[in-house]
Amino acid sequence: MGTITKALDLLDLFSSTHPEIGLGEFTRLTGRDKATVHRHLTELAENGFLEQHPLTRAYRLGPALLRLAAVREAAFPMRKLLHPIVAALAEDVGELAHASLLQGDALSPVVHADPKLHGVSVHFDESELLPLHATSSGLAVLAFGPDALRERVLARPLAHHTGQTVTDPTALKTLIVEVRKTGVARLEGAFDAEVTSQGVPLYGEGGVIGALSVAVPSIRAQPEKLAEIATRLRAAAQEASRSLGGPSPSHSRPLPHAARAAHP
Amino acid sequence: MGTITKALDLLDLFSSTHPEIGLGEFTRLTGRDKATVHRHLTELAENGFLEQHPLTRAYRLGPALLRLAAVREAAFPMRKLLHPIVAALAEDVGELAHASLLQGDALSPVVHADPKLHGVSVHFDESELLPLHATSSGLAVLAFGPDALRERVLARPLAHHTGQTVTDPTALKTLIVEVRKTGVARLEGAFDAEVTSQGVPLYGEGGVIGALSVAVPSIRAQPEKLAEIATRLRAAAQEASRSLGGPSPSHSRPLPHAARAAHP
């Protein structure tokens, strides 16, 4: 692992439930040498990627990230572009919808919306990376994304997130083949024990760039409801991929068979 | 300069007017060895801090920045907190107002608002870092911020941004003394030839963390107008500093002298 990766890895330890981390905790979490961790933290802070609490000396993510995110969003307004589509989908299906973008070998949430129509709702943390093998978003990306990504993920140990996470590469390959047939990835309790989610790929200019998903508490996941969600998910993903500069892949066409036959 | 700083420096080359940069351009802009630059770019891309255009292979800022900015904003909602204050100030004075946070030896814009009441308005690029010696925001931070920061900035060569930028350390020191007396930094044409701006410091728990400013086209910068803006700027900065966890320093008190005497 290079020095830059080691330093940037430290930033990934922050989350909305863990917004401040001290030197001791960094050392413990990474299992690395304290002097090295301190040097990396100092250099990140000097560049505005971290800042220190004036009294506790604990580290927080820094203002440089706000500025760089604004630069990216100004030039490539993914969040702005995806927000209305995700919000409309969530409203349509009455459940939590989210879009995420491929970041290394995981998915980084970009936007989510939940109409909160029910007494029980799925908790979604936009600051948490989504693992590819354990989420419907990830499975959709594995099924339709680059071969190299799939091979890399299948070659590594796959982490358990719940008792239902598929961690056997052969079983995961079988799942991927299934997703390729239906165009929609469906997982029950693989990331959160009580949640069933369905995901479809999002395409940009160069192929799969992320995924669009709807997650529902498993107690509300009746087959007819899931089928209805899948249909709307496909349509929303096609709309999003069009805006993101992607092609319109046949497996995400929202048209019914009759209409499709009329537009070969 | 450390490896991490060298890599992170590459990210600062992006701006909203320059959202894609190729390897050759990175090499030219940095004057560094091409192989080293390429290694840094690859490592940044592997970590989601950059992504490559699928066809041109040019680099863009990556999705990791969106996620990390969201994590920071969720825990320390600077943008959310400053937005209403900046918007109300802009509305009040009828001119462009902006807030920025200290990032290394420059200020990083966080939010700006412009009611656009006039035919001529100040162009503000939120993706551009504000140099401390050439902006009213920076001058306010130099006047009330840490001694070490001021000494570091004064010891270095100061860049010309316009013909009116103060680049002589002695002249800059005189300006700083003046700002300490009035509590408000005022600069005419130092960063943009046709713009006059006034800035005051923003305080967090540990002291000065940034600045709040109002910028007007110099053609509209009559003395009475500037005095009125300065009063409102002080009041808005006090409100912002209170929300940011800072103390209420006497020089940013918005109270008139009579009222101040009544509350010693």
* Shape, per Cα inertia axes of chain A: globular
The sequence of SSEs of chain A as H and E is HHHEEHHEEEHHHEEEHH
CATH architecture of the largest domain in chain A: 2-Layer Sandwich
Task: Name the quaternary structure.
Answer: homodimer
Proportion of beta-strand residues of chain A: 15-25%
Helix-strand category of chain A: alpha+beta
CATH topology of the largest domain in chain A: Beta-Lactamase
Strand order of the largest sheet of chain A: 5-4-3-8-7-6
Largest sheet of chain A: 6 strands, antiparallel
Helical residue percent of chain A? Answer: 40-55%
> Uncertain segments of chain A of ≥5 residues (pLDDT<50)?
249-264
CATH homologous group name of the largest domain in chain A? GAF domain
Terminal-residue CA separation of chain A: 49 Å
Biggest interface goes to: A-B, 57 and 57 residues
Radius of gyration of chain A: 20 Å
